[in-house]
Structures are given as C-alpha cells and as structure tokens.
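Q: Hi! New to this. If I give you a protein sequence and the SMILES for zinc ion, can you show me the bound structure?
A: Yes, paste them in.
Q: Okay, here:
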Amino acid sequence: MAIVHCPACGKQFSSVKGDCPHCGADPADRPRRRKPAGVGPNTHYLLGMIAAIGGAGWYYSAWSTGQPVTYAKWMIGIGLAWYAAARVWSFLRRR
Ligand SMILES: [Zn+2]
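A: Thanks. Here is the predicted structure of the protein with zinc ion bound:
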C-alpha cells in the first residue's frame, strides 16, 4: 500500500483503492512512473574508457614506431573527457 498523488487533481489517496476517490482519475498514468532512458551513463562510461584505452594503445604503437603521437594524445583526452562528462551527467541525473 502506498500513498499516491492524483495526476489529475493532486490530492493524496491510497493506491490500493485504484481510481482517485476525489475525481476518478486512474493513478496508473501518474507522472512518477518514468520509462528508462535508452542510453544510460554506464554506456558512456564504457565508450569513454574504450576511447581512452584505445588512444593509449595507439599512443604506444605510434611511439614505438617513431610516428607522431599528437592524434593519439587527443584520443586519450577525448576518452577521459567523455568518461568525466558521463560521471557528471550521472551525478546530475541522480539528484
Ligand atoms: Zn483526483
């Protein structure tokens, strides 16, 4: 049993009673029930880490063969920034 707010009139009532006793609205479509987001922060953590690790591998292979490492450094930086942005996004969404 839970106390819910009617989505139509805003009054409180027990959810076991079904429809709102004040106005008759169905609490099943109350705005508290949200659909899960398509892409969550965990996906972005993973993508950011893959980019950073891939950049690190690229950096090593370029460094060991004497090629310029500028773009590999950028890839590491973008991966870490992506990961950090996902952390911030997750933190803001949780509040
Ligand atoms: Zn109501």
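A: The chain has a mean pLDDT of 84. Let me know if you'd like me to explain how to read the tokens.
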